[in-house]
Amino acid sequence: MKINVQPKPTTTIAPYMTGFVVMSTQIRVGILGYQRVVAAESGHDAWISVAIAGLLSHLTIWIICRTLRHYPSADLFGIHRDVYGKIIGNLFSLLYILYFIAMAMVILRGYIEVVQSWIFPGIPIWILGSILLFLAMYTVLGGIRVITGYAIISVFITIWLFFDLYFTLEYARWHYLLPVMEADFKQLLKGALIMAFTSVGYEVLYSIYPYVGDKTRLHRHAQWGAFITNFIYVVLMIISLIFFSEGQLIRTIWPTLQIKTVVYFPFLERFEYLAISLWMLIILPNVMLYMWSASRGCKRMFGWNQKRVLYIIGAVIFIAMQFFVSRHAANYIIDRMSYVSLYMAVIYPYVLLLGVLIKRRWNRREDSSCRDPEISGS
Amino acid sequence: MPRSGNKRLLRAGAVLLLCSVLLSGCIRTQIFDELGMITVAGYDLLKDGNIRGTVVMPSINPEAEEKVQVMSGISLTSKGIRDKANLQSDKEVLGGQLRVAMYSEELARKGIGSIVDTLYRDPSIGSRVYLSVIEGQTYDLLTYKFKEEGNIGIYLYQLIRHNVEDDKIPSPTLHEFYRSYFSEGIDPYVPFLERKGDEVRIKGVALFHKDKYVGWIPPKEAFHIKLVHDAYRAGTYETSVDPERMGVKPKKKNTTGPDIQMVFDTLSSKAHVDIVSTNPLTYKVDVKVRTRILEMSIPLKIEQPEVLRKMEQALSENMKQDLAKVVAKMQKWEVDPFGFGELYRAKFRGARKLSHDQWHEMYRKSRFDYNIDVEIVRNGVLD
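Predict the joint structure of the above. Result:
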């Protein structure tokens, strides 16, 4: 396996698209219900926790981009091979592939849970699951350009859903935010760590990196995407805190949807139903990118046919979803995955950067002729 | 990736899509003509501890003589009542159009937390549903043949809605009730309705301690809750002033004429509540009201600034007395619709863990200073 890959110029994406990719992978089902779990830790100061988590995601994206900058055109799997060698590198890559698959599964299951709770209590998992998986797989077959194009469309179609927050100001009780900083630092940090699951998604940068046309501008656009996401998260958190009382917020499973139940138009009485339906457009780019990354990883590591791997991954996700029928079970796996993602997407990039730096130094020392490791890698 | 793979998947997808289109016929359809949309639901407490629920659905059959269908069932839970209502109905009974939920006084006294919880838990019911407490039994009210109201559900909804929008009573939506119910520092309130002849009227505002109904106050007193709690408008205020304070000479000597009745409309009000001392807990309630004169029972020379000043003073004085009375009453009843407890929590660090009982212990002993500043900014088109 080569460490660096050079995709054809016709398959590359413009750097500004990575901003949309980061944004659309960060926003998914978690945004419907993160307020409650964060508020359970840091109370009415939860918005500070969310802001801290936002800063953390900016920092992590910076770390990821720094790691990638050491390579002209490598992805996560190539870097693993370069840093850890063949066996351990493949092991890490395999873990990451499993993580991608699990994330796609959890996102799909989470969305189906919302649909089952709000709109169709009787709809079985397999119907919605197979339709959504088919849509995702069909787009993934189009390649990364189609996926990013879809991500951009989904951002533009759904971004206006956040403007309905204006209607909630009628119910606002601003003093719920006071006194600021009542939670101690430990509680704030705990809230921020729980928030991390909601704001991960930027780890797909690792796998799309070779496909970005102008790699020098990648970092700036990725940060912009993350900034918009974090801004939405903080605003939504503040709105939720002034809209709900604390006891009520902790009991509400999907505060973002519950907020939408007070939005009322003469021609549309129940706004949240529209929002849930449109949410499909928000979660699909996530599922696509994770499935694409996983199948891409298999191709890179084992040289398998990516299309065939994709079908297998689709089948695995489909079967795995059937094991989490009840809200309890779905909640359990989402909870577990939030811890896993904390390690995989938030902590691991720092470890990897350290590995890359050590490896570079090692190369330099070993190579008396001072060959640039970036060239030696390709 | 090769195109042929796309094609094959597309074909498989087309089959899948076709299947889903065909299978969607298997999902239970809900045809409008076959649905009964509950617009109002009433709950009474029976002597044996069961709950009697009464639901009203509009009848869409043009041949029907009555505009509404009324059904009732007795059960321990509200969903059990819906099942019983289904047994009486030719249509599938659904709660998605519920506008008003009513509770009888006795039931409310026992606590309505669990019934409100089922409404809030049900995703098909929006959180803008109005709650209310009624005098007597909801069954009697909902089965009464009102002549003019037609669909009683929509009538009740409009009755409450326009009064809320005109700032006559504080907003009683399900969301706001539930929010206050789960906040330790404020108690919920909903309108208190009664049937009077062939009409339903809002008699006042029912006050709760947690989820237990304690008593009701007339709209005139509820005005003060809005004054302190809502930042926007507080509605109209009627007061009577001793004529001598206004500098009106009685016609005969040594007698006092009748009090001057005055009605004011608050254009805007701004309340600022501050805690000035903790031992004993003392609140300073600053209210700034801008009003306009709507009515005076005798003509006063309001073009003179000093008369206007006197009027403002008298109004502030009266408002202050009334507000003090209402707050004292609330303290006696152990209800805190003003949200003084929430302000306490917002002010002091570490007060987050204050429980509802602890707060009421403090609330009972709290003292209040009032400072009401009334400004008359308009007096209609007459001087």
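Chain A has a mean pLDDT of 87.
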